[in-house]
User: Which sequence fits this backbone?
């Protein structure tokens, strides 16, 4: 085998310019794919991180039917305290769960005593919320990173629109489940930067304040946001929680709860899928580049070496070894192109990070993209290139191995 | 391996033929025409012979060498080489048979350009016969010395002369210890001095290793170096003559 490699490498060196051109083409393809995968992958990961770690959590549990009406924030579809206790017990017994935060969501009127507008609010236990969505505190552009009773954190657009500042007193008026209206004064303790996606322009109050406005003797729960220890275990965790929650049924025997991952709750998931589709097509283009360039070079190699093939076949080289010789040449081209491409790709990503890519995404301004290359990406792309290189060599190699030595020796 | 098999039968010493061809014919078909390249050729060649097939262009020299070299199949007839009926061999079996029993010397030398002289000789031992490194080294050193190419061992084919290339080709053909070496016009691309030197080298190799050499040529001076001469004309074997003296 070592000798087959030796001969293959020497044959590649023999046609230096052609080998260099082909390897360069593969290298350029690998570099472009790696840079694309790195930037889009990092953008996707960053946005998913923003969405899950500052608003949604990795997954959520609601009372059955709540998500279908989530735009209305229906109070009649909240979990009763007894039902929430079941979820709390279930989550406490699930080792994959790092933290969870019950929320009481409601819509209300926000007034600064001169102007009034509508607002969506989350009643939360601040410590639990900050553990479940740790980037929420990073969205607090003004004010303290705590939320006490009687305090409210409001989105920056609302603060600007109504000219509300930190420490101002505002009034929240909300309609209760029975249709009556109640109001409560709050001190503005924090201004939140807006974030892209559902819940990105919501305000926050303490859950006990929310229950007080809504005249609930004990807080009902609209949703439970959950953070996992390992984000990659999301699909398994969703299945596991669905199975566990499936045992809880209402009087009519229907499931009481529903489990949704962030993917089902955020429209950004469709953008993420688009990124995946684009990445897939970029990889297809890479495959085409490798396939065409290597097949071209190997067909030429076979054509130019017909007499040599005849000679080695005549002296007894078995067809399988002749086939292997050409496949190994393709393999070597693929390996060289992939390795050089990997190194240059890594270098380009490092340079991009040194320069720094800043971008705006909806209301989020000046985000810095840190391009990263996962070892899995390097491995996947390298394996694709090498496998395609071998596949591209197969046809010329088989042709070479099937040549009749007598005809090959006659070739001029 | 030195191929020199003799058997005793009914108290009489008999030499077993290395090659036995019976009624060999070979036709080539084009669209409308059938060309009879060989017609009903019979011959026997003994081990350790130095044989030449001679004749004008188109007489069938190359065809007969191709058949003996298992590079082609006869249209009719039987051909037995080294106790093997080679006509029925498949593609892989033919390759294996060639690798085990036959050596080839080509008119254009056909050395592998990316391999050095040493590596060209080594090639069949690695790629065809899978010989252990130590034995490879011994065989190659012996043959390099025999063809007087030891000091050129690490040169590439493009760095040596035509005569030297053919000496390397002789060494490559012999390195697998074949029973038979086939050389199709081995001196056609060499000047007369070098041609004689190569034929002399082949003869010496036959003497040293007991290998049968069969070569084709149209060079009348070179023909005389063969010990057995088969004359071909229009695809028919017309004469078997005695040439130089077999020791």
Assistant:
């Amino acid at each position: 085998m070592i000798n087959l490699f030796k001969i293959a490498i020497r044959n590649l060196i023999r046609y230096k310019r052609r080998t260099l051109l082909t390897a360069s083409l593969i290298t350029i393809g690998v570099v472009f794919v790696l840079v694309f995968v790195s930037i889009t992958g990092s953008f996707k990961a960053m946005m998913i991180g923003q969405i899950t770690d500052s608003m949604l959590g990795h997954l959520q549990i609601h009372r059955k039917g709540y998500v279908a009406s989530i735009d209305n924030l229906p109070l009649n579809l909240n979990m009763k305290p007894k039902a929430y206790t079941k979820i709390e017990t279930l989550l406490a017994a699930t080792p994959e769960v790092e933290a969870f935060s019950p929320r009481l969501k409601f819509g209300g009127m926000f007034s600064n005593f001169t102007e009034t507008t509508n607002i969506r609010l989350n009643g939360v236990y601040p410590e639990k919320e900050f553990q479940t969505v740790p980037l929420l505190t990073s969205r607090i552009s003004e004010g303290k990173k705590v939320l006490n009773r009687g305090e409210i954190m409001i989105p920056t657009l609302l603060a600007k629109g109504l000219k509300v500042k930190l420490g101002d007193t505002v009034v929240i008026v909300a309609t209760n489940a029975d249709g009556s209206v109640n109001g409560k004064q709050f001190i503005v303790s924090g201004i939140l930067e807006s974030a892209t996606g559902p819940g990105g322009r919501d305000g926050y109050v303490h859950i006990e304040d929310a229950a007080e406005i809504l005249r609930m003797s004990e807080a009902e729960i609209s949703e439970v946001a959950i953070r996992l220890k390992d984000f990659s275990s999301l699909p398994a965790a969703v299945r596991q929680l669905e199975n566990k929650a499936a045992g809880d049924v209402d009087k009519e025997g229907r499931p009481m709860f529903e489990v949704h991952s962030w993917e089902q709750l955020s429209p950004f998931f469709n953008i993420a899928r688009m990124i995946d589709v684009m990445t897939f097509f970029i990889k297809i283009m890479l495959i085409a580049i490798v396939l065409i360039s290597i097949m071209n070079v190997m067909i030429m190699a076979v054509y130019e070496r017909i007499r040599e093939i005849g000679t080695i076949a005549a002296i007894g080289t078995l067809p399988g070894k002749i086939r292997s010789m050409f496949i190994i040449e393709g393999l070597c081209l693929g390996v060289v192109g992939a390795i050089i491409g990997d190194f240059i790709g890594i270098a380009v990503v490092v340079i991009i990070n040194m320069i720094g890519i800043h971008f705006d995404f909806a209301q989020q301004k000046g985000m810095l993209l840190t391009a990263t290359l996962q070892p899995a990406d390097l491995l996947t792309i390298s394996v694709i290139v090498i496998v395609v290189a071998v596949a591209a060599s197969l046809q010329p190699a088989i042709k070479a191995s099937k040549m009749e030595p007598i005809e090959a020796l006659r070739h001029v | 391996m030195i191929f020199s098999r003799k058997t005793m039968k009914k108290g009489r010493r008999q030499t077993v033929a290395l090659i036995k061809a019976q009624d060999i014919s070979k036709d080539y078909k084009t669209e409308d025409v059938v060309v009879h390249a060989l017609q009903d050729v019979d011959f026997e060649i003994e081990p350790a012979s130095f044989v030449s097939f001679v004749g004008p262009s188109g007489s069938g020299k190359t065809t007969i060498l191709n058949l003996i070299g298992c590079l082609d199949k006869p249209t009719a007839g039987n051909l037995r080489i080294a106790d093997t009926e080679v006509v029925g061999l498949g593609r892989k079996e033919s390759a294996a048979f060639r690798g085990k029993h036959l050596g080839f010397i080509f008119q254009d030398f056909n050395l592998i350009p990316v391999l050095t002289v040493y590596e060209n000789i080594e090639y069949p031992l690695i790629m065809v016969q899978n010989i252990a490194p130590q034995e490879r080294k011994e065989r190659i050193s012996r043959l390099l010395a025999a063809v007087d190419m030891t000091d050129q061992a690490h040169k590439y084919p493009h760095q040596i002369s035509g005569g030297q290339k053919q000496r390397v080709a002789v060494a490559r053909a012999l390195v697998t210890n074949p029973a038979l070496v086939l050389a199709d016009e081995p001196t056609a691309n060499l000047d007369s001095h070098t041609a004689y030197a190569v034929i002399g080298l082949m003869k010496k190799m036959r003497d040293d290793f007991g290998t049968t050499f069969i070569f084709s040529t149209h060079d009348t001076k070179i023909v005389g170096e063969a010990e057995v001469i088969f004359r071909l004309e229009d695809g028919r074997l017309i004469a078997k003559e005695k040439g130089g003296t077999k020791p």
Chain B has a mean pLDDT of 84. Residues 12-242 of chain B form a domain with the Rossmann fold fold (CATH 3.40.50.300). Chain B has one domain: 12-242. DSSP finds seven helices and twelve strands in chain B.
